[in-house]
Amino acid sequence: MQNIAKKHYIDSLTRLNNRLYFERILPELNNKHIAPFSIITIDLNNLKKINDTYSYEKANFFLKMTAEIIKKFSREQDIKARIDGDQFVILMPEVSKREAEQVAKEIIDYFKSNDLPTRLTAGIGVATANRSQYSLYELFRLAEERMYRNKIARDVSHKYKVFSSLEKILEEKAGETRAHARRIEFLSVRLARQLGLSLNQIDELKIAARFHDIGKIIIDDSILNKPGRLTNSEYEVVKTHAKIGYRIVKSIPVLAEVASLVLSHHERWDGKGYPGGLSRDEIPFLARIITIVDTYDVITHERPYKRAASIEFALREVNNCAGSQFDPFLVREFIQLIQKLYDL
User: Does 310 share its domain with 165?
Assistant: First the structure.
């Protein structure tokens, strides 16, 4: 009878725990008040496409392979379950944020480094808390939200395709906008890694960098591509892009945090920016990164109204604005990054 009950909680394909076991064990663990507690959620990308293109057996092979990867990089005492067709969860009692992120990174790196028969990736979300902060139910929802953001950040989410279409329209309106956004994404992520930011922060930064100017989609082409100086009234129109972009990005609920970065990427350290006149630590930390990288990229690339300047000139301009337009700490870190990248 005990063996029958145990079988009831095992996923027959992967031999991990199943959804039924997960739903039974989560309230038990929640009542034990273990701290810290980490949860990793993993969702396979393209599994339906693999199933449709290749075979049911091939999709099952990848599910079993993912289960083995999860077992390889997690501890024996961690609770590992397949909770949906292509979704897995790892419950990690007494595991810190740093330790959980390391496990997540190892799983991501394993997917990247192995020569799989077909392109298979995974969205991954990590959440850690002391029990006074969250119930395990809330912690699981937070990990899931971060997993969906990770999928959007890596261009593998169906929901991302909406933004991809908007990006294409904006590129047609304003020429180099997509290239500009991708350059900002690249440098922002490099700076984030230099600063040791979390996987979730890097995902938020990727999405915000890519879509920071998406609000310009409704601004008239004649203003966006004007070769001369904007009038005051034209500049006021351009400034509306931060609020418009905020509303567009916030239309996807899991991107609420990212929307605040889009809203704030023209705020200034001294409080003279827009749209909210925020200053210093009132400005979201990740938005402060985008502000610096955005300015640097504008200076070093040609626009309808200006020629491109040298990297050295751009770094001097950024440094001169430390403490007025930009966070002085981030300016120092950014200059170090560019100097390393270009061996200056």
Answer: yes
